[in-house]
Predict the structure.
Amino acid sequence: MKNINRIQRIVLIACVLILGLACKTDVKEKGIDLVSDDLPLVANDLNNLNVSILLDLSDRISPTKYPNEAMEFYKRDAGYIKTISTVFLENLSTKKMRQANEKIELYFEPSPSNSDINNLSKKLKFKITKDNISKEIIDEIEKSYSTYPGEIYELAIADNSYVGSDTWRFFKNKVQDYCINEDQRNILIILTDGYIYHEDSRLKEGNRSSYLIPQEIRKNKLNTSSWKENFENKDFGFLNIDVDLSNLEILVLGINPDSKNVYEEDVIYEYWSKWFKEMRVKRFAIKQTDLPSNMDKIIREFILD
């Protein structure tokens, strides 16, 4: 009888081990390396990423108007986006399956009139949870972010209808609804040359405006060595928007200042940083355009820090 009980215990232990190995095999097939499941489930895990990408499809991307021998600016953008998606997936690979709650999306302001562009952008919206995480969806994210952004830029360039980018209005009307979730770490990455202009959104109150263009910088005499004093004393800047973005981190990539003004980059930085501080943005960084290979480290550290 004792021998029978001992055999039963051995068989039971063996079954448990086999089931455990089967679960691990299933996880590996999904391409996710999970940490120990002994850790408690955290409802509000700030390692759960909510990544939003805002594209500026103004004429800054035109290879005809702004050619660049090293790499066209729209190709740089596509390279940045590929790195963003790669880092997003790397972060996901460290998660426990039951803690998966990640989102990555791409936006424009205004929405392009080309329906093909809008349809492609829909294919770049992903929400990953414990219910849908799989090797297939991870492969789909990787493939989509490697292919569709380039196609979006090519369609926009082929249309040759650049109405501008209304970044100011995006912050006024949409950023809180689109880019901020309470149970996630919210990161907005803006791809822009630093100038803001849209033909239907040219608001101005005193020395504050909803737009920024090189002509205005020169007109306001922010192109001399005394630009900073002039900027502060006359309260230049973007029109303030009364929002609390203390739960949002922002990375601005692609700043491309007018070369005719040696202070242009400093002025652009001051406009954006003043605006972000007034909106109480939790953390931000503003970076000049560079090759994707050189921007990789900056993107990676910002997202994974």
